[in-house]
Amino acid sequence: MTVKAKICGLTTKEAILSAIDNGADYIGFVFFHKSPRNITAKKAKELSDIIPPHIKKVGVFVDPTNEYLDDLFKLFKPDYIQCHGSETQERIYDIHMRYSLPVIKAISVRNSDDIVRGKAYSNVSDMVLFDARAPIDSPIPGGNGIAFDWALLKKREFIVPWILSGGINIDNLEEAVKISGAKIVDVSSSIESAPGVKDSDLIAAFLKKVKTL
Questions:
Q1: What residue segments make up the domains of the chain, in order of their start?
Q2: CB neighbours (10 Å) of residue 49?
Q3: Which of 119, 120, 77, 85 is nearest to 102 (CA)?
Q4: Which CATH superfamily is domain 4-210 in?
Q5: pLDDT digits (tens, 9 = 90+) for 120-149
């Protein structure tokens, strides 16, 4: 089975085109004001218009309110909603039902208990994303460029697809997939020249590496 790739936190046409041309499966837009990758709904709509239908658009949110999502979706409606905050299972279910869109629940991982917690969300989400728990002083829950113990996911079985995120780069990609068994990987900071500044060449190189797995 081919490994798929989600390229997250894109904000420019150049980065979008690199992701498209080199075979990204998912493109993520971050809607969180504290993130260096934050984007407006208007800009996301403008960029999403050049994304072909076979590449899925993911809106990434942190504990969004219904009012916020209602307003944003007037301009930009993704194919997936990714919740990267402290959303409960009930909240994930409510979001899914309210907007009739598949939901990805991101789980911050420090130990095996967090993997078990992630499995519990399989009942209400369409995918689960496992990311390293952010440092205490970090203003953002993801995109910190740190990894967790990938062996925590080895031979785990889930009823929905899951995504490996956190600290993955072109040099450790093969090892990350081999150890965890991941079929979908997510990257953001490792394909940047500076925080929030995506590098088209790094995107291309990473995606080409993914295709060799």
A1: 4-210
A2: 9
A3: 77
A4: Aldolase class I (3.20.20.70)
A5: 999 999 999 999 886 555 555 545 567 899
